[in-house]
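In this supplementary section we document a worked example of the pipeline. Step one takes a protein sequence of length 85 as its only input; no multiple sequence alignment statistics are reported here. Step two produces a three-dimensional model, which step three serialises into structure tokens for compact storage. The input and output of this example are shown verbatim.
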Amino acid sequence: MATASNRVNVVLAQEHAEKLRRLADRTHVSPGTLARSLLSTALDAADPSPASVTALLDAMDGAFERAQAGSRDFKAGRYVPLEEF
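The serialised model returned by step three reads:
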């Protein structure tokens, strides 16, 4: 029985993308395979409590400003409904 796949696209900063490529080269796997493994490990170790999630979001540079901009875009009608994807 095949398992369902959930595709997620992640955009990395240049320095993180380069580090991922170097790590992938050293481990002889594709960057996508390594990224999937690293993300899965991080998600397994992540604490899903609201306080931990809040702390994680607060640690992201510009996250609050991007969330506000997204809210403004939504209110202005600048969005694509999920059904169209």
